[in-house]
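Students often ask why we bother predicting the structure of a whole assembly rather than each chain alone. The short answer is interfaces. A chain on its own may look different once its partners are present, and contacts between molecules only exist in the joint model. In this exercise we take two input lines together and write out one structure for the complete complex. Read the inputs first and try to guess which parts will touch.
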Amino acid sequence: MTDPSFTMIENGQSHEIPATTDATLRLATEPVLEALGWTQKPEGLCQGDVCIPIAGRPDLITSQGIDLLGLGDVLGRPIAIDREESVASFGAETAAHGAQLAEGFAPDFTLPDLTGKEYSLSGFKGKKVLLIAYASW
Amino acid sequence: MWQALYEELADRGFVPITIALDESADAVRPYIEKAAPGHPSLIDTEHVVAHRYGMINVPTVVWIDEAGKIVRPNTAEYGTDTFLEFHGRESGPFLDAVRAWVKTGEIHADDTVPSVMPPPTEDEELARAEWALAWFLHQRGSSEAAARHFDLAGELSPDDWTIRRGSMPIRGQNPMGPEFFELFKDWEARGKQSYASMAANRRS
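Now the answer. The structure tokens for the assembled complex follow.
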């Protein structure tokens, strides 16, 4: 059975992608890889200079699409899924995220103030920044 | 809260950036308008900063230098002593430490400050993915499905207050009520995890 579309959420963006939901949840391969910034090559799944071999996973990509959970495993990213609601949400690449933080790289972000004006952390290079997260809860 | 410090140190290249992890701009608007900050005071309803920095509670303070490097990792620090009796962390020494950093580049830290940013666990990262899913469902009006995923996120990462307490206003629950004290007792029972304990326990 093919669902007309499945919503894939990644890095604050949502993408509508055709899906096949049998025992294995599969989404259309090319839009998924494009949304995540990966390309399929003979070497495997590639991004920039990095290629991850997938020859040992013959069922990862079939004519029905790409196995979503299998892809998460290959990329080292957790995925939260709600089949009934047809939504999947990608978490960060756990190992790389940890390494980035441990090395002291401050992740960039872009957020609005109350007026809607947007600010990025990278716009404050050259300043000493005190980043304070708080909440009324 | 940070405006006075900003005015004092702005001409030395210092800028506080506050990040509200509230569920809407309206929820935090009265507080920001009262503070009338001249520094950036940003709204993070989707918890982007909390997720990227591996934050698990508020307040969380990070020092980032001119080159964009984290020089003092995630720590619970306060700009005033309003709730000192509850948390025991004085604001005076912290504000002096910020002054020393800005004026001389020194970084003052104690045992409460982790030596490095704690690397997130797989469960914490999955919990954050569940949070993003729940938030999407909530915005779409699928409240029951959203609640299921907020619950899942909380089970995966029980010491992440930004999830369990942070989801309460979204779900129409009172974050100041009895549930808060239950969360607090759970946190104590599990060993009072802090950023320092996370960094110490996750050393590779």
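Check your guess against this: Chain B touches chain A through 80 residues (CB under 8 Å).
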